[in-house]
Amino acid sequence: MSTFAEFLSMGGYAGYVWPAYGLVLLIIGGLIIQSTMDYRRQKQLAARLEEANEAAGRRRAPAKKVPS
Amino acid sequence: MALNFHAYANPARFMMLSRRLVAPIAMIAGVLIALGVYLALWGSPPDYQQGDTVRIMYIHVPAAWLSLLCYTVMALASATALVFRHPLADVCAKSAAPIGASFTFLALVTGSLWGKPMWGTWWVWDARLTSVLILFFLYLGYLALWATIEEPVRAARAAAVLALVGFVNVPIIHYSVVWWNTLHQPASVFRIGGPTIAPSMLAPLLIMATGFTVMFVALLLLRMRAEILRRRVRSLRLAQAGFAGGGREA
């Protein structure tokens, strides 16, 4: 237990070492979560829009031959 | 090489090739970083002068390297976008920027947390610190350009020009500790004559740096995939708006 407490105290520099590691965890972790969530959202949106477009395309199929 | 270059130019092809890459690359990064953290916090000795604060080095130095690597990737991609109109280059540059900004922020703050106990100050207008702060502002400016210019083609061009102009700062950062040798220590790994750092400290540092780099690759691929999808969503929406408008006119 005392060695663990020693480890936590970081030779008296706990107030500098732990915030540094904590911040890296927070920022990199945040970046991973944000990137993953954005990717999933865009993937979902693209799939939904593609489906809607296909459905619209099927309905519009005869009219498609008219040049716009 | 030239052939490969164009083979990967197609976003659809990129999406297909990168699909199964992100997760395994992220896993390798996770293992390396976990091992690096273990060695940095438990498996390496305290410094004979700096005590346990030296453990901040194992995250500070890789973060600082990555801040420069990200910017170099961003500048190279920007040059490719401007010169060759490579369809993935914009996507790559835009996706690298938030990652680079994050690493630069971490380099600055962990440096500050290391500086306070060792130099006796959180901040000093030393050439190295100042040039890295400018790097952080370059990233923010780059992101602000993308965020404020509505039209994607114009935004891409303006951002690419800023990234290229700002690249002049990268060698300045690298040589700042030599040209204006004030408080920040000079390089002890990438120097002529080899590293001057003890092997028991070099190992965790290199493992951590490799872990950060592999994590950067995974994040870059993931963000590029999201960006390509975002563009697809945008064009699908425009197409639908066009259909709806045409319908009303008919």
Overall average residue pLDDT of chain A: 86
Shape, principal axes of CA atoms of chain B: globular
Major sheet size, sense and barrel closure of chain B: none
Q: Name the average pLDDT of chain B.
A: 90
**Major β-sheet annotation of chain A:** none
The separation of the N and C termini of chain A measures: 78 Å
Count of alpha and pi helical runs of chain B:
9
Flag low-confidence runs of chain A.
none
| Largest interface pair | A-B, 32 and 41 residues
Helical content class of chain B: over 70%
Radius of gyration of chain A: 27 Å
Order of helices and strands of chain A: HH
Any low-confidence stretches of chain B, pLDDT <50, length ≥5?
A: none
How many distinct helices of chain A? 2
Kindly name the structural category of chain B. Answer: mainly alpha
Structural class of the helices, strands and pairings of chain A?
mainly alpha
Oligomer: heterodimer
Count of strand segments of chain B: 0
Whole-number radius of gyration of chain B? 21 Å
Beta-strand share of residues of chain A: under 5%
Shape of chain A: rod-shaped
Characterize this entry briefly:
Helix content of chain A is 81%, strand content 0%. Chain A has two helices and no strands. The mean pLDDT of chain A is 86.
Protein architecture, described:
The complex is a heterodimer of chains A (68) and B (250). Chain A has 68 residues and is mainly alpha-helical. Chain A has a domain at 16-51. Chain A is built from two helices and no strands. Chain A has helices at residues 2-9, 14-60. The mean pLDDT of chain A is 86. With 250 residues, chain B is mainly α. Chain B has a domain at 59-189 and 216-232. Helix content of chain B is 77%, strand content 0%. Chain B has helices at 2-7, 11-18, 22-41, 57-84, 89-119, 127-148, 152-166, 169-179, 199-249. In chain B, helix 4 (57-84) packs antiparallel against helix 5 (89-119), helix 4 (57-84) crosses helix 7 and helix 5 packs antiparallel against helix 9 (199-249). The model of chain B has no long low-confidence stretch (mean pLDDT 90).
